[in-house]
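Working notes for the structural subgroup meeting. M.R. asked for a predicted model of this chain before we commit to crystallization trials. I am recording the input and output together here so anyone reviewing the notebook later can reproduce the run.

Input as submitted:
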Amino acid sequence: MYHIIQIGPISLPMKTLVLIGSAFLALCWIYLLQIRHTSVKKWTIPIEWGYAVLWVIIIWKLSYVLIHPLETIQYPLRIMYFDGGIFGLVFGIAVGVYSFHKSTSKVISLFTPRLQMGISGLLFWFGTYSMLYTLVFTVHHINILIGVYFITLALTYWYKLSLKNIHHTLRLIQWGSAGWITSQLIFEEQEPSQDIWFVFIVWLFIFFIDMKLSRKRK
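Returned structure, recorded in token form:
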């Protein structure tokens, strides 16, 4: 059964609407976090965060053309259903982070607070998406708990006295990565995918950085 909303001649998949709706909630959360920790009232940071996410998705999708040029020429619509894999994702993230840094540097000079607001937005987005997806499609109800888990991680930034210390974000990336890997392993019937291994490598990398910084503080 396909979940599609028909608006005149336009057919919109419910999954896309859930993705957009949860992204909008994440934008609002970033704005609330911004006015909580800074004196900036403009929507520049949330909007640029949204643009950065779009850059990641677009490059991730378009990188399929570079990896499979002949198949794309023969079947152009494949780009809607396939992506560039880990290579495209990493490249997209690099461009997205650079775009976010460049476009928000004049709003808040320090990069650490901007980075932490962006990470909090991603956690909030993933959490709300998991919850809304479960409510709409009635899949594994444990996804609601997964959503609550990621939203809780995002909300911890609200109670921080300052966003200038990167230590909190390093810990949350570890907790977030571990939570995502665990949720994937619960529902994966086959062997762990490349995505899981990629996130595990990220977790390992962040863990060693956090450990080194913790030793320096001592």
